Amino acid sequence: MFRKTALALTTAATLVATSALAGGHAKDIIDTASEAGNFGTLLAAAEAAGLVETLKGEGPFTVFAPTDEAFAALPEGTVETLLKPENKDQLVAILTYHVLSGKVMSTDLTDDMEAPTVQGSSVTIDLDNGVMVEEATVVQADIETSNGVIHVIDTVILPDS
Predict the structure, then answer these.
(1) What is the pTM of this model?
(2) What pLDDT sits at residue 108?
(3) Superfamily (CATH) of domain 2-153
(4) Fewest Cβ atoms closer than 10 Å to its Cβ: which of 100, 106, 137, 150?
(5) How far apart are CA 61 and CA 17, in angstroms?
(6) Taking a C-beta distance cutoff of 8 angstroms, is the pair 22, 35 a contact?
(7) What is the DSSP letter of 75?
(8) Does residue 60 have a cis bond before it (omega within 30 degrees)?
(9) Percent of the chain with pLDDT over 90
(10) For residue 119, which of 102, 94, 136 has the smallest C-alpha distance?
């Protein structure tokens, strides 16, 4: 528990520092995540899925961004399999399940809210024990970017197959 809390605080501090260095929120979602240093797997997946230019686009987007540790918690070999070109459609579905159209700040969330994702299905927001998106906990919220907002989550959320 302590390690998870320490990681969340480190990630939060890095993102706050990145945002401050960027002059508020002058950088887009991709650049902000890249500078934070804890989203290498997410960025590699976005590249493999062909979503980098979209997430650098005008938006606005809301991204529930899993950390590298969240991706590492998936069953062994999952990330490597998803990054293969023949699995691009599945990777796109997973990544777009983490993205909402529009800028949704934490103050816009309500308990048991169903938020439609870019992937096409919805995620459920639970505010009973902190902020949960499906089974993922939001460990840092409201990181504003030039084209939306990032909410850091501790688990990769998977759409129903």
Answers:
(1) 0.83
(2) 95
(3) FAS1 domain (2.30.180.10)
(4) 106
(5) 21
(6) yes
(7) P
(8) yes
(9) 81
(10) 94
The tokens describing 116, both together, are 């439609």
- Full DSSP string of 10-49: HHHHHHHHHHHHTTTT-S-HHHHHHHHSS-HHHHHHHHHH
**pLDDT level of residue 5 (50, 70, 90 thresholds):** very low
User: What is the largest distance, in Å, between two alpha-carbon atoms of the chain?
Assistant: 41
Round the CA-based radius of gyration of the chain to a whole number and report it.
Answer: 15
Please give the C-alpha separations between residue 95 and each of 54, 88, 90, 137, 159, in angstroms, as whole numbers.
12, 10, 9, 17, 10
Q: Specify whether the CB–CB gap between 139 and 66 falls below 8 A.
A: no
* pLDDT at residue 115 greater than cutoff 70: yes
Two tokens, residue 26 = 């002058």
Owner of token pair 């960027």: 22
The tokens describing 128, both together, are 């009973």
CA atoms within 13 A on the CB side of 85: 0
- Tell me the C-alpha distance between 42 and 19, whole Å: 19
